[in-house]
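A.,

Following up on our hallway conversation. Structure tokens first:
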């Protein structure tokens, strides 16, 4: 099933200052999360950003923080964000049934977010190239586990072009610039 912009929201999980430097390929993960955030904003797709224990792990990295509307930050202490009632309520209020998930760490909070959203009845897509773990083997295991749990595994470009749908719209040129930026 394809991603439809009008049915989607984008969830960035825990791309935080004290965690990111320890994640394998974190520069690419941050760049692709930021690209997806810019694309979502351009296409009027809601974006939410979780921050896990920000008092200890720090807030979102500067490249993500620069794109955040402070009202869209969801603080959490559970590894699985859907175990937090205020987050579940916030996401439900969006009225959209397709969650696109990216972030850190792929095998902990990001994977648990995807699995939790799927358990709650959302169609869920996990952006594998916009997610990372300290060890590549953990990232690979998370991808395999999500695949077995019927979470769609996608890439940043897949998401952007599926959300866009066609080339004869005003947003095409701007989104093409975003795609070429990573």
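Then the amino acids I'd put at each of the 182 positions:
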């Amino acid at each position: 099933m394809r991603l439809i912009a009008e049915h989607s929201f984008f969830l960035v999980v825990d791309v935080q200052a004290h965690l990111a430097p320890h994640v394998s390929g974190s520069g690419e993960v941050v760049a692709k999360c930021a690209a997806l955030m810019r694309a979502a904003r351009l296409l009027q797709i809601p974006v939410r950003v979780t921050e896990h224990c920000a008092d200890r792990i720090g807030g979102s990295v500067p490249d993500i923080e620069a794109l955040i509307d402070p009202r869209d930050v969801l603080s959490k202490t559970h590894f699985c964000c859907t175990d937090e009632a205020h987050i579940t309520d916030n996401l439900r209020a969006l009225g959209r049934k397709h969650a696109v998930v990216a972030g850190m760490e792929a095998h902990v909070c990001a994977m648990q977010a995807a699995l939790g959203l799927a358990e709650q009845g959302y169609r869920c897509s996990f952006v594998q190239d916009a997610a990372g773990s300290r060890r590549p083997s953990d990232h690979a295991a998370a991808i395999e586990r999500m695949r077995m749990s019927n979470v769609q595994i996608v890439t940043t470009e897949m998401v952007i072009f599926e959300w866009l749908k066609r080339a004869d719209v005003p947003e095409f040129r701007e989104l093409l610039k975003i795609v070429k930026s990573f």
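The helical segments are 26-42, 54-57, 62-65, 85-93, 106-119, 136-148, 156-164, 171-180. Curious whether your intuition agrees with the design.

B.
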